[in-house]
């Protein structure tokens, strides 16, 4: 999405302030090269006053002298010119920020420190307090200004983000926050975004302070509201928000590569102020979003009776978004949903990264009211226990549902056959639904499906069940998550069809099976669920340590298979960019993991299991196999034996390595997370 502040094609003329000297080629390439001396740092002023204008001048000349009127060529000229103009303005603001930093620092250095240090004990406490107050003000101003460098690129209109007074005000005590330099600067940056980007950003206001938020949740919300059209667009927007300082990525593996983020408290306060002013959500006096949608079309569920207040409100038909921020028990009547004729986003499940929020519901009856809802695009039941099946009545051909998140619905043991009627469905997540042991045939009818997670393979099939080969005709399927049991690599070779999934980009396979108890009629998942509630935490089988004792303690049984029964998969799709193998039972890598064919593979995750060697047995016509992987995660591999030189040789393009509970890895640099670029740089410096 292009920024609304970017100049249009008509606005791009000879850059303002560019003297005729540049037209006369006074600034030559030799003069530009003089700034590239290895012992010289190019100052902001030189970049802004000399280099960027010269580059702009060359672009204008190139465009003027070009005889090519093809629109894409002219658009590229315009884009480069716009970007150079933006860069020019950014460096000017950086210079202003530098000047302000210089002023603040000098005032602190030039303070009468000799007089302060000579204050005698006999002097009054008022004198000491006054001196400390003066110092505190200067240090606070400097702290706010330096913090602004971490939270923002300098603002388009005001680079001074300092807040008047001796300290940053408490969000709940400041009555004049919207008048501070920080907020004014923030709003200028906010106003530089386009309309959709601003609406997306306002959604961050509803999450509690200091919380870690999953990108996927926001992406689905934005798609449901129609602010963006795809997860790809969402990834691009998140990268912009991180670059501009609106959000802080958590565990960033590379530029734009992160799954969760957090928000600076001051930025959150600024967003709440803007969201309240725009009636985007309603907030109480403690800056918490409320269930009230009198002025807005959006409401949030919190603790302490928010469901009751929601059911008693009028005009449910105007409600478009209902988001569960903190309600742990969903007991409101189903007819409440039947009144929400305009609802497009219904997020009842868990949104946090920790998965600590245990949410319960009294069966699936509460969902029956959705049978008459046609505009719903996003439904999340993530982490809700007590729902045993999804009502077939909500699967209507004329329903707009695009995203259905059923992840970690512990009691869910059945999907309706009518699910194939959801013809607009693009995302279906059933991962963590360990009681589901068969797939309805209707899944093969989801022609628009792009993401399908939690698909069970290897179980005995009946005529009405969906097999993996039934999904081959789904031409848009780019992300697939599978649960496999011991029969998966047997004679039937159900995995063998994977090579036919030509557009698949991400593949996850979990080789873990769940034991059952015939006497009680309940499987081990019920025990896991009870344990999760008891300890107020979610249990994920793929994160369990791979040692036999720990596996038995979670009653997850790892199976073993002979090598002859693992050869059914001839190869994986060459289009794969990420492969995640969980609890692979054999000691060697799967022979269908062929680096000489997986040239697009950039991410490889191996978690749990019995693997002891990453070597691949390749055909004689291929050289020693080298991976193109950039991100490698090795977790809970207690038997994996490898030394550091062997790994870096096998993965020559590796940039990021995560190793957790892999005790047999030898001579590796310390730390669970290794960034290979930094290690190589340090090695070069040491030489």
From TrEMBL:
Name the record gives this protein: Disease resistance R13L4/SHOC-2-like LRR domain-containing protein
Superkingdom of this protein's organism: Eukaryota
Region spans: Disordered: 147-166
One Pfam family it belongs to: LRR_14
Leader sequence residues: none
SUPFAM superfamilies tied to this protein: RNI-like
Disease resistance R13L4/SHOC-2-like LRR domain boundaries: 344-523
Keywords linked to the UniProt accession: Plant defense, Repeat
GO BP term (any one): defense response to other organism
Extent of Polar residues compositional bias: 147-161
Keyword Repeat: yes
């Amino acid at each position: 999405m292009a920024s609304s502040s970017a100049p249009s094609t008509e606005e791009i003329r000879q850059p303002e302030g560019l003297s005729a000297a540049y037209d006369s080629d006074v600034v030559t390439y030799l003069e530009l090269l003089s700034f590239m001396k290895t012992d010289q740092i190019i100052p902001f002023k030189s970049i802004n006053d000399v280099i960027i204008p010269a580059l702009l001048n060359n672009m204008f000349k190139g465009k003027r002298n070009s005889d090519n009127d093809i629109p894409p060529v002219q658009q590229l000229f315009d884009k480069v010119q716009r970007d150079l103009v933006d860069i020019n303005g950014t460096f000017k603001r950086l210079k202003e920020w530098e000047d302000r930093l210089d002023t603040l620092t000098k005032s602190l250095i030039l303070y009468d420190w000799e007089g302060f240090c000579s204050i005698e004990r006999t002097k009054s406490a008022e004198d000491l307090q006054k001196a400390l107050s003066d110092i505190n003000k200067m240090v606070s101003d400097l702290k706010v200004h330096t913090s602004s460098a971490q939270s923002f690129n300098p603002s388009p209109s005001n680079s001074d983000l300092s807040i008047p007074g001796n300290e940053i005000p408490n969000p709940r005590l400041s009555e004049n926050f919207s008048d501070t330099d920080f907020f004014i600067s923030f709003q200028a940056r906010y106003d530089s975004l386009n309309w959709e980007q601003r609406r997306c950003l306002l959604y961050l206001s509803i999450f509690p302070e200091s919380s870690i938020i999953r990108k996927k949740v926001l992406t689905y919300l934005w798609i449901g509201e129609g602010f963006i059209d795809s997860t790809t667009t969402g990834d691009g927007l998140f990268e912009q928000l991180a670059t501009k300082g609106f959000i802080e990525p958590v565990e960033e593996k590379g530029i734009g590569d992160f799954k969760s983020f957090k928000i600076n408290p001051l930025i959150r306060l600024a967003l709440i102020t803007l969201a309240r002013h725009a009636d985007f959500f309603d907030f109480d006096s403690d800056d918490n979003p409320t269930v009230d949608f009198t002025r807005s079309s959006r409401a949030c569920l919190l603790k302490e009776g928010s469901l009751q207040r929601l059911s008693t409100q009028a005009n449910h038909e105007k409600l478009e978004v209902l988001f569960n921020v903190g309600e742990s028990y969903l007991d409101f009547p189903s007819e409440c949903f039947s009144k929400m004729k305009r609802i497009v986003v219904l997020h009842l499940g868990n949104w946090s990264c920790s998965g600590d929020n245990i949410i319960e519901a009294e069966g699936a009856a509460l969902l029956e009211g959705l049978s008459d809802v046609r505009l719903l695009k996003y439904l999340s039941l993530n982490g809700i226990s007590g729902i045993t099946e999804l009502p077939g009545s909500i699967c209507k051909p004329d329903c707009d549902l695009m995203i259905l998140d059923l992840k970690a619905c512990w009691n869910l043991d059945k999907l309706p056959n009518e699910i194939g009627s959801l013809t607009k469905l693009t995302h279906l997540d059933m991962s963590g639904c360990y009681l589901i042991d068969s797939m309805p045939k209707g899944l093969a009818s989801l022609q628009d499906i792009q993401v399908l997670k939690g698909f069970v393979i290897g179980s005995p099939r009946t005529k009405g069940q969906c097999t993996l080969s039934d999904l081959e005709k789904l031409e848009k399927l780019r992300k697939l998550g599978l649960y496999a049991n011991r029969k998966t690599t047997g004679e039937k070779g159900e995995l063998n069809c994977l090579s036919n999934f030509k557009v698949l980009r991400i593949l996850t396979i979990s080789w873990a099976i769940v034991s059952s108890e015939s006497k009680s009629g309940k499987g081990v998942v019920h025990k896991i669920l009870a344990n999760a509630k008891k300890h107020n935490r979610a249990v994920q089988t793929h994160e369990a340590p791979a040692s036999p004792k720990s596996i038995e303690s979670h009653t997850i049984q790892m199976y073993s298979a002979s090598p002859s029964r693992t050869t059914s998969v001839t190869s994986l799709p060459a289009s794969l960019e990420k492969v995640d193998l969980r609890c692979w039972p054999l000691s060697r890598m799967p022979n269908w993991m062929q680096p000489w064919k997986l040239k697009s593979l950039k991410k490889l995750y191996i978690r749990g299991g019995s693997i002891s060697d990453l070597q691949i047995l390749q055909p004689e016509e291929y050289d020693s196999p080298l991976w193109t992987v950039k991100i490698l995660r090795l977790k809970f591999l207690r038997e994996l034996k490898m030394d550091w030189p062997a790994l870096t040789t096998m993965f020559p393009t590796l940039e990021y390595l995560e190793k957790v509970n892999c005790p047999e890895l030898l001579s590796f640099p310390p730390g669970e997370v290794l960034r290979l670029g930094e290690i190589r740089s340090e090695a070069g410096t040491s030489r």
